[in-house]
Design brief:
- The protein has helices spanning 17-26, 35-65, 68-82, 91-102, 117-125, 136-181, 198-214, and strands spanning 12-13, 31-32.
- It is mostly helical.
- It has a domain at 67-144.
- Strands 1-2 form a two-stranded parallel ribbon.
- 21% of the residues are buried.
Length: 236
């Protein structure tokens, strides 16, 4: 597999020194390893994770948006029956209002803080008036899907924030280190530049990316999507 996706004279970036020795000995493929490769591998891994998590957040938002027409249709009934203006409400709040109407005695899982006390009282008191206007079962299916998407989005957003923060801190630390060592001189009074040089970065990046692309891994798979794979649009 490695030989198939490695061009002649191409160096292979390996994140483990032992693997590097084995590959060079048995496959006769030149390898590079060490701190510079470790740094690059970490960067690629974090970047991939950030892209994946951002993709999950997007899919959660798309799941909510898929129910736009259904929820706006319910909003028209709320305006006519309970005389509540929902024009400025987002889809999450509309989904919560539908749950109040369908289950007036239950707690609003999306948060009762979304509504004023008077709004909750009106929706609960008027719940019987929505019979044949808002169908309970389809509405609750949509509500539960939106609730799950909201919870997943919050969880992934927190992970995404930590990943971005960690990447930023690492980058800033590297920049500070390079700035501090930029004018350091050796015994021959020549400047010593620590860290990864642009030439090494270019060489490592090209080596790793060539292998990844050649292996057909252009499409980034989002593992968490299994969790919301069933979140298709359901009309009221």
């Amino acid at each position: 597999m490695i030989q198939k996706y490695t061009a002649p004279l191409q160096k292979l970036a390996v994140g483990n020194d032992n693997y590097s020795d084995i590959i060079e000995k048995h496959l006769h493929i030149p390898c590079m390893s060490g701190p510079h490769v470790d740094e690059l591998m970490w960067g690629l891994k974090v970047t991939k994770l950030i892209i994946e998590k951002a993709g999950v957040v997007f899919e959660c938002d798309r799941c909510v948006d898929d129910h736009h027409d259904s929820l706006r249709g319910a909003a028209e009934h709320i305006k006519k029956i309970s005389c509540i203006d929902t024009q400025s409400w987002d889809l999450l709040k509309l989904a919560g209002s539908v749950q109040v109407i369908c289950c007036p005695k239950e707690k609003v899982e999306l948060g009762e803080h979304l509504f004023t006390r008077r709004q909750l009282e009106r929706l609960r008191d008027d719940a019987p008036k929505y019979k044949d206007k808002i169908l309970k079962m389809p509405c609750l299916v949509v509500y539960n899907k939106i609730l799950r998407a909201r919870d997943l989005r919050l969880m992934i957003a927190r992970v995404l924030f930590r990943l971005v923060k960690r990447a930023k801190e690492t980058y800033e630390a590297e920049q500070a280190h390079e700035a501090a060592s930029y004018h350091e001189t050796g015994p021959d009074r020549k400047e010593i530049h620590h860290g990864t040089t642009p030439v090494i970065i270019d060489e490592l990046t090209e080596s790793v990316c060539d292998i990844i692309l050649s292996a057909g891994l252009k499409e980034r798979q989002i593992m968490e999507m299994d969790y919301i794979s069933g979140l298709n649009c359901t009309e009221f």
